[in-house]
Amino acid sequence: MSITDLPKIELHMHLEGAAPPSFIRGLAAEKKVDLTGIFDERGAYKYKDFWDFLKVYEAATSVLKTPQDYYRLTRAVLEESVSSNVVYTESFLAPDFCGGGDVSAWRDYLAAIKQAADEMEAEEGIVMRAIPTCVRHFGPDQAKKTARCAAETAGAFVTGFGMGGDEAMGKQGDFAYAFDMAREAELRLTSHAGEWGGPESVRDAIRDLKVERIGHGVRAIEDLALVDEIAEAGIVLEVCPGSNIALQVYPKWSDHPIAKLRERGVKVTVSTDDPPFFHSTMRQEFDRLAETFGWEVEDFMELNKTALDAAFCDEATRGEVAKKLEPADA
Ligand code: ADE
Ligand code: ZN
User: Fold this and answer.
1) I want to staple 255 with a disulfide (CB 3.0 to 4.6 A). Which of 111, 122, 217, 250 is the partner?
2) CB of 273 closer than 6 A to ligand 1?
3) Quick one: pLDDT at residue 328?
4) What φ, ψ does residue 238 adopt, rounded to 5°?
5) CB–CB of 151/185 below 8 Å?
6) Catalytic residue among 10, 195, 238, 285, which?
7) How confident is the chain (330 residues) per 10-residue block, as mean pLDDT?
């Protein structure tokens, strides 16, 4: 089996950020919202840098107004994942965009998302789990509301809690209350760090939020003592190389530290983050990693195993997904 055809596990993908531009354009037309400014002449999302990306992302998300919109979004996104042979995916969802942090509204959105996920599992075999995330630049008080939504719906489908958004706003520790609430509800924890912030932001997330996974975390490479601590503690990095190149955290694939982190013993996994924004797919991530670092089928099978071990799901699900990873003729 070729590398790009391998079954894949994805741990870091934002549902809203995975919305195909054509899907968002269709919704905008239905709702008579003018979003032409966020697309380029070929119909792709258009942005200048990370901060502009966040603005375009929020503008695109503004047309997702009802649970039914999220039902359709979930199906569209999972169809894309299936075409990359992703067999298990963890999707970040922002309760801020699904009812503004109101628990009762969030339940309605979540039910619609879960219905789409259940249908796609029955039809295509893909398994999805949901990780509600707070948005860092919406601040710690709004994050508490998000955590409450997550805590109230924790279970077999909602299995984790996380944080994305602008890493320049405040400190990881400002969000400790929200993360403590999620931990009390037995949710597993991850936070974006070491993407725009340096190694200290990764240290802060581990110390102040007690996360077991880090979203990105790649800039830990600037402090090798930290890299060794991460390896020693078994913290898992949700690395999104295509995102880091598209957003210019690193100028080119050969500059990306994923191989160095892995060689030094860090548990790395591979995801797309917001695939249409970065013109990427899981197939392409695997392809570029193979081309850049000479990784072979065995390396990708090891990445999959690391991801499955780190997945925020129950043991029965982990066992079921493990069977899907066995390639017929690797
Ligand atoms: N939300 C969606 N994508 C993100 C990223 N790459 N960094 C921070 N927050 C995000
Ligand atoms: Zn992300």
Assistant:
1) 250
2) yes
3) 63
4) -90, 90
5) yes
6) 195
7) 95 98 97 96 96 97 97 98 98 97 98 98 98 98 98 98 96 98 98 98 98 98 98 98 98 98 98 98 98 98 98 98 79
The pLDDT value recorded for residue 303 is 98
Distance 213 CA to ligand 1 centre (A): 15
User: Given the CA of residue 136, which atom of ligand 1 is nearest to it?
Assistant: 9
* Residue ranges per structural domain of the chain: 8-322
pLDDT at 330: 46
Q: Evaluate: CB of 274 within 6 angstroms of ligand 1.
A: yes
Q: What pLDDT does 1 receive? A: 81
Measure the N-to-C terminal CA separation of the chain; round to a whole number of Å: 5
User: Which residues, at least 6 apart from 201, have a Cβ–Cβ distance to it below 8 Å?
Assistant: 167, 172, 193, 194, 219
Q: What is the pTM of this model?
A: 0.98
Residue 67 CB–ligand 1 contact under 6 Å: no
- Mutate-to-test residue for ligand 1 from 12, 49, 54, 133, highest number of ligand atoms within 8 A of CB: 54
Amino acid present at 263: E
Nearest alpha carbon to residue 7 among 271, 330, 325, 328: 325
Q: How far is the CA of 328 from the centre of ligand 2 (A)?
A: 32
- The verdict on the CB of residue 238 being under 6 Å from ligand 1 is no
Q: Say whether 167 is catalytic.
A: no
66 exposure class (CB count in 10 Å sphere: 0-12, 13-18, 19+): middle
User: Which one of the ligands is nearest to 243 CA?
Assistant: 1
Q: What is the distance between the alpha carbons of residues 181 and 78, in angstroms, rounded to a whole number? A: 29
